Description:
52% helix; 2 domains; 184 residues; mainly alpha
Amino acid sequence: MLFNDLFRETYRTILVRGGEEPEYLPASSANGLAQIVFAHGYYASALHEVSHWCIAGEHRRTLHDYGYWYCPDGRTAMQQHAFEQVEVKPQAIEWLFSIAAGSDFHISVDNLSGAGASDEQGFRSRVLDQATNYLANGLPQRAQTFFDTLKYFYGTSENISTAWRKDVRRVVPLYSAKEHYEAN
């Protein structure tokens, strides 16, 4: 409801519940609506798919799944490394959306039947660094609009800094949140 109210008219895009796999479907006509399809009605899937949409440029939003390469679960170490490189920004945005909505965020290396993460702690740290950068310098425009709307709707604006610090310790337990904040 929040996403559709914000972006249905201005970006001709809606968020819809899907089945097995999430995907992005560009509008099929000039007057049609693009669809961000999230998996199984899961809240976290919706936030993650919206985060991808928020960083996709105008051209990418005309392409199925934004024209990105996707190799399914079971990736090799090299494929997993490539996956982790492109997932830093979307997962950082998803994390902030989750904080704003008062829901739990979980880092996803999305490779359960493969070799796992190529560098899970490094990936967690890169996602943390990117999210911290977004908090300090602002999110991309659509992401900032959605983030602000989530904070308002869920009443989390007043406690966002406290919730963020607490969640950093939960999501990146081996990373010293104190050192990170002193460095920034």
